[in-house]
Amino acid sequence: MAREINSVGVVGLGTMGAGIVEVFARNGIDVVAVEVTEAALERGRAHLTGSTERAVARGKLSEADRDALLGRVTFAVGLPSLSEVDMVIEAVPEHLDLKQSIFAELDKVCKPEAILATNTSSLSVTEISVATTRPNQVIGIHFFNPAPVMKLVEVIKTVVTAPEVVEDVEALGSRLGKVDVTINDRAGFIANALLFGYLNHAVTMFEAHYVSREDIDAAMKLGCGLPMGPLALMDLIGLDTAYEILDTMYRRGGRDRRHAPAPLLKQMVTAGLLGRKSGRGFYTYESAGSPVVVGDELTPAASTAAVSVAKIKKVGVVGSGVMAAGIIEVFAKGGYEVVSVTRGAERSGRLCESVKNSMNKAVIRGKITEQERDSTLSRVSWSTVLDHLADVDLVVEAVVEELSVKTALFATLDEICKSGAILATTTSSLPVIECAMATGRPADVVGLHFFNPAPIMNLVEVVHTIRTADETTAAAAAVVASLGKHPVVCADRAGFVVNALLFPYLNDAVRMVEANYANADDIDYAMKLGCGYPMGPFELLDVVGLDVALAIQRELYLEMREPGFAPAPLLEQLVTAGYLGKKVGRGFRDYRS
Ligand SMILES: NC(=O)c1ccc[n+]([C@@H]2O[C@H](COP(=O)([O-])OP(=O)(O)OC[C@H]3O[C@@H](n4cnc5c(N)ncnc54)[C@H](O)[C@@H]3O)[C@@H](O)[C@H]2O)c1
Q1: DSSP letters of 462-477?
Q2: Which residues lie across from 183 on neighbouring strands?
Q3: Which of 105, 96, 141 has its CA nearest to residue 123?
Q4: What does the alpha-carbon distance between residue 364 and residue 367 come to, in Å, rounded to a whole number?
Q5: How far apart are CA 291 and CA 286, in angstroms?
Q6: pLDDT single digits (tens) 183-215
Q7: Among all residues, which ones are annotated catalytic?
């Protein structure tokens, strides 16, 4: 039977430590909270009182419970006050030397049977453990930020951690209401190993002025349903901590260039821009420690959308697939007159049916009235002749994802469409510039990357090439905004924003399974419960289709030539074996029974 842990010490009351103190005290465990100076102790105390105060204000904690919680916490400077606790959790900055010296001292002051745990995100628990004379009682307990909210803890056992200690800590995890995954000691464990390559990539995109900070964050929230965008998350984690984690992962994790911290990070840390905790990071906050973002010199000016959208009234949509149907519906609902063009009457008939079906469903769900449906449909004309696009103001091309087909279509559109019309492609992986250069008017060509299902997904990536005129990009973004959707403007690079950030992460998850570090269930848990993702990577891969994921990953790899982007061999094998995901009944999981 696991031994019961009734008192713990927490060393370091920063972003994580203060939250960890709250988790224990909330669950009836006495805590000795330790800092290095009186001033730091006060900050830690203020963090805890502030957080519990907010919980009371939100009705999540009664005043009596708050008082009992605070009554369980003793604050002290220095480690000697930890002589009587059953377990210590260390949460000081991510430096190996510092952690080792603290563990050496803890080994001296703590009772012989006390468990010594580190909350490190990336350092070797084994290396920390050997600074003590009891490495078998040293373990990693990796909480997620904010600790009182996130359900996951990663329990990291080293090759010498005693099995009883692992059991004790697992039992403690469930007592705290957490879900644990127990894993071996590897840089970044599960969640950070998958998260930090993505976060660093997002910083690189921002640093290269590829896309604005607001647009990166909006893209990942709206395109993937993530609770926060990557730059806002960096600010929450703390840029100094994020820098150290990346640096350690780079050195411990096989020198993957994707973990080499973006130069901007180091500059920001040196300049004291540490994120929320210092009041400024990628965003500016009301005050140090505040979650409230305030405007600064990078905040975009209010949009001038109304001006540029006025001249666009009639929209052509070419194609007869799922995306074309969704896009027709979206534009017609947005009040635009729509000309749909397909390659034959039968296709047009099916397309019209599918738009009608989708709108009927919306009526049944009470989202629109029958009149709205009828007036929307009356704005669409169904044609099989491209010449009918002669007088449209905007054409959205949504034909098959094949470059030769798209360039031929753009050449034809160039001949047919009136001068000044915007020509847009919905491609998700081909270079927009190829479509632009098939026309004599590359300044008028943009990408409009809608997400599936278009009527539901609120994100549209507006892709400008090096030849797109600024007015064209602005007009396209304004049209998107007029549809009630969120335009994210980015340059013409493989995967644009969302796919470029999403698919390498999915590919890394496949590599992790391939390396037998963790199984698909644990990884899905880790990302959902540790990072608040709506789906784990394997759930998502099975929905997206493994063939689709492989094709996108290949494009990214071919364009960037980044070794870390090479498709995971296991992904290739599953596709070859025909395990393409839910659509065929089997992918990473079997859906047939
Ligand atoms: N920030 C996150 O999102 C996150 C998430 C999970 C784990 N972690 C890990 O938690 C640990 C702490 O990170 P953080 O973000 O809370 O850092 P932080 O900089 O916010 O806080 C560290 C605290 O440790 C204190 N400290 C420094 N030296 C000390 C000493 N000798 N004795 C006692 N206290 C000392 C500092 O005064 C500071 O308050 C790191 O190992 C980090 O990798 C961080």
Answers
A1: EEE-TT--HHHHHHHH
A2: 156
A3: 96
A4: 8
A5: 8
A6: 999 999 999 999 999 999 999 999 999 999 999
A7: 428, 449, 461, 499
Written as one string, the DSSP assignment of 246-276 is: HHHHHHHTT--GGGSPPHHHHHHHHTT--BG
Spatial contact of 269 and 240, defined as CB atoms under 8 Å apart: yes
8: nearest Cα among 96, 131, 119, 104: 119
As a three-state string, the secondary structure of 480-501 is HHHCCCEEEEEECCCCCCHHHH
Neighbours of 169 (CB within 10 A): 24
Closest CA to 428 of 505, 342, 329, 494: 494
CA 54 – CA 57 distance, rounded (Å): 5
Angle ∠(410,415,418) on CA atoms, nearest 5 = 100
- What is the Cα gyration radius of the chain? 27
From 11, 92, 155, mutation site for ligand 1 pocket: most ligand atoms within 8 A of C-beta: 92
Helices (H), ranges, 365-437:
370-378, 403-416, 432-437
Q: Are 358 and 348 in contact (CB under 8 A)?
A: no
318 Cα to the center of ligand 1, angstroms: 55
List all residues whose CB is within 6 A of at least one atom of ligand 1.
11-17, 34-36, 40, 91-94, 102, 119-121, 142-143, 145, 237-238, 241, 245, 277
DSSP string covering 270-305: HTT--BGGGTBSSSEESSTT---EE--TTSPPPP-H
Token reading at 197: 């390559």
Q: How far apart are CA 537 and CA 519, in angstroms?
A: 11
Pocket test for ligand 1, best of 11, 13, 15 (most atoms within 8 A of CB): 15
Tokens (6 digits) for 1: 């039977």
Report the residue count for the chain. 593
**Left (φ > 0), alpha (ψ -120 to 50) or beta: where does 15 sit?**
alpha
Tokens at residue 245, please? Answer: 């984690």
Quote the Cα angle for 325-391-406, to 5°.
Answer: 50
The per-residue DSSP string of 79-105 comes to GGGGTT-SEEEE---S-HHHHHHHHHH
Spatial separation of the C-alpha atoms in residues 501 and 513, rounded to whole Å? 20
Tell me, what's the pLDDT at 272? 98
Handedness of CA 486, 490, 493, 498 (dihedral sign): negative
List, in order, residues 6 or more apart from 298 with CB less than 8 Å away: 212, 213
Atom 10 (ligand 1): residue with closest C-alpha?
Answer: 91
Q: How far apart are CA 565 and CA 258, in angstroms?
A: 9
pLDDT exceeds 80 at position 435: yes
- For residue 24, report the distance from its CA to the centre of ligand 1, in Å: 17
Give the pair of three-digit tokens for residue 225: 């349903």
CB crowding 217-227: b at 16 or more within 10 Å, else e = bbbbbbbbebe
Q: Is the pLDDT of residue 519 over 60?
A: yes
Under 8 Å between Cβ of 503 and 497: no
pTM of this prediction? 0.92
> Is the confidence at residue 85, as pLDDT, over 80?
yes
Q: How far is it, in rounded angstroms, from Cα 317 to Cα 331?
A: 9
Cis peptide, bond prior to residue 453, ω within 30 of zero: yes
State the pLDDT at residue 310: 73
Q: What is the pLDDT of residues 443-500, one digit of tens each?
A: 999 999 999 899 999 999 999 999 999 999 999 999 999 999 999 999 999 999 999 9
